[in-house]
Amino acid sequence: MDNISDVTISRRNLLIAGALSATAVSLPSSAGAQSVPPAPAQTTTPAPTITGVSLRINAEVRTLNVDTRTTLLDALREHLHLTGTKKGCDHGQCGACTVIVDGRRINSCLTLAVMHEGAEVITIEGLGNQDRLHPMQAAFVKHDGYQCGYCTPGQICSAVSVLKEIRDGIPSLVSADLSVAPLLSPAEIRERMSGNICRCGAYSNILEAIIEVAGRQA
Amino acid sequence: MRAFTYQRATSPAEAAAAAVHVPGAKFIAGGTNLLDLMKLEIETPPHLIDVNGLALDKIEETADGGLRIGALVRNTDLAADMRVRRGYAVLSRAILAGASVQLRNKASTAGNLLQRTRCPYFYDTNQPCNKRKPGSGCSAIEGFSRQHAVIGASAFCIATFPSDMAIAMRLLDANVETVTPDGQIRIIPIADFHRLPGNTPHIENALVPGELITGVTLPKPIGGTHVYRKVRDRSSYAFALVSVAAVLHENGSGRVALGGVAHKPWRLEEAEAAMPQGAAAVASRLLAGATPTQENAFKITLAKRTLAAVLAEAKKG
């Protein structure tokens, strides 16, 4: 047990030393490394790099200094404390991290913050709030489109996007005729929502919520 | 994730030259596959070259009536383009059969061609894998191999290539356009782009280090009825057990390619000569010499039956 925590501390010291050597330019790059054991594998791994990035998040320009490794998801949650967006699998398989970037929903866990200089990001906090719910949020509440609620912000960002994608004529796997605009149907909505997993299994209620909002928009 | 330095490229030639400057550097476009692998430290590039600023996001008509698809065209945009939907419907269908909308909104055309396998042993860094660590062995051959290749595999690797898009591009005789680090433009027929594993499964395609894909061209539309059918463990958002891409003409001739069965899109032009004789004749030529494992032998039957179903569907029009 002691050995394990020793390794953890060494790793942490190594990272801190690496960060110092990257920022303190007057320090020779080897100086930071002398006090810590050599890196285990890949000697080519550079020290952590901090980069500035500006994004428009929920209509507000936010400028951040982030480690290049920071995903858009971690920038939102850890740097900006917009914790409505959830981290589920962190590998693009569950959809809990879905946000809308430049008008399109993406998995914020599978993209780097530094890749989005100047981008327009809308998170669940930007869609609505407790005093002024987005119609999709209100419909999820009305139809009980969740149980634990963890996947819900991603489900709602996707649901809002699904209706826009159908309005924009973007086809899906279940669109029968590719030469015409897709129809709004339960099958279309189900297929387009397949990137959002709900472990509680609230799918049928989520579908009802989306259909209700779609009907109001049609 | 290992630390890396980061730059935004301003031209394809500059990007390619920069990639050989730092050994192990990688291009990043959508990042949906690369970042997944970097989090697991399966990919550990010390330097990332962001190519998203390159103006490679257009779909344009070519002089010979085909299409040129920029490397950065997102999967969603390619599948939704009306010229693709009308002239190359099998490509739209194949793209829409893959991943989720969130991923297709980000994933690029070039990145899709460069997808790494989803073999669970490639993903598990505690297990030997010749693709991840050359010479370490293949855990899949004696392991759980239900998802794996049944044809064109080797004693070193039985992984499959996971793309749906590339199966349709192989069917349509696409060409991959690249720029090499010394600034040369190369055109690689898609049939020669992906490699079989042989004894070097870590080398997956014909690109040289630093070579950047700039686009994919499609010859002019060939007409016919286009079908893409993907068979998988759930009806959406899963990789193929078997997929079939087909174009069938009224005179009974046509083309067929298989996904989910090999280390590359599986198409044999000589098998297509048997199209007028029917699906069974095509399938037996296409799958001749297959070497399935006990766990994935079902894919042979599945491929034959899916091919028969696809050709029957295409015949109805």
Beta strand % of chain B = 15-25%
Rg of chain B: 19 Å
The major sheet of chain B is characterized as: 5 strands, antiparallel
The computed structural class of chain B is alpha+beta
What order do the strands of the largest sheet of chain A run in, or round the barrel if closed? 2-1-5-3-4
What share of the residues of chain B lie within helices? 25-40%
Average pLDDT, all residues of chain B:
97
Ends distance of chain A = 61 Å
Brief overview:
Helix content of chain A is 39%, strand content 12%.
How do the strands and helices of this protein lay out in sequence?
The complex is a heterodimer of chains A (218) and B (317).
Chain A: H1 2-23, H2 31-34, E1 50-57, E2 60-67, H3 72-79, E3 98-101, E4 104-107, E5 120-122, H4 124-127, H5 135-143, H6 152-167, H7 186-192, H8 203-217
Parallel strand pairs in A: 1-5
Antiparallel strand pairs in A: 1-2, 3-4, 3-5
Helix pairs in contact in A: 5-8
Chain B: E1 5-8, H1 12-21, E2 26-28, H2 34-39, E3 47-50, E4 59-61, E5 67-70, H3 75-80, H4 82-87, H5 89-96, H6 101-106, H7 109-113, H8 120-123, H9 165-171, E6 175-179, E7 185-189, H10 190-193, E8 212-218, E9 225-231, E10 242-248, E11 254-259, H11 269-272, H12 279-286, H13 298-316
Helix pairs in contact in B: 5-9, 12-13
